[in-house]
Amino acid sequence: MTKATIDAETILKRATPLAHQQAPEIQPFGHLVRMPIALSDNACKESVVNLNQLLADTITLRDLYKKHHWQVAGPTFYQLHLLFDKHYDEQNELVDAIAERIQLLGGVSIAMAHDVAEMTLIPRAPKGREEVPVQISRLLHGHEIVLKEARTMARLAAEGGDDGTNDLIVSDVIRRNELQVWFVAEHVVDSPLTRAD
After folding, report:
1. Residue pair 90/143 in contact by the 8 Å Cβ criterion
2. What is the structure's pLDDT at 6?
3. pLDDT averages per 10-residue partition of the chain, 197 residues
4. pTM for the predicted model, two decimal places
5. Does domain 37-187 have CATH number 1.20.1260.10?
6. Exposure check for the chain: N or C terminus, fewer CB within 10 A?
7. Domain residue limits, the chain
8. Backbone conformation region of residue 106, classed left if phi is above 0, alpha if psi is from -120 to 50, else beta
9. Distance from C-alpha of 145 to C-alpha of 44, rounded to nearest angstrom
10. pLDDT on residue 4
11. How far is CA 75 from CA 5, 52, 81, in A?
12. How many whole angstroms separate alpha carbon 59 and alpha carbon 67?
């Protein structure tokens, strides 16, 4: 058996990455492909629109947690630094679950910061550092926005027969955000630290 020899130039050509490729989008944003998941087109479309809004707000809330994780200051720095990072990680898990549900329904999930900034309902935070009570108030307001829209979206998904989206929103988004609200809100309760009143 004879071995074919390949010259070095051919080997290098095969090993060179094909960078700077361009092509049209394979699916434009706002358009759905039909997935064989036994859901009506209308149910899928409504859930995709709602979930993209929820995704934009969840990404914004996640990023607020990371901003405050980096910029927190004061006597509760260590505790809040760790708590904000933990909540960031949990929000990041929600981001992934919501985006994957959008794709599963045949939609296209938003992904880029400029798209998120255009869509989010959560007010933009300043670039600079804020006091801890302001940071916490900002986070609580963000959670309230997410929870209000999530409850409405869960009901709409259930009415449309989209049990998977309803389950994701109720079991993951609502329950996780409610728990985070409790953990964060307790940091702005005006109670004495060392002596009872």
Report:
1. no
2. 73
3. 75 90 93 95 97 98 98 95 98 98 98 96 96 97 98 98 98 98 94 75
4. 0.91
5. yes
6. N
7. 37-187
8. left
9. 23
10. 67
11. 70, 38, 11
12. 12
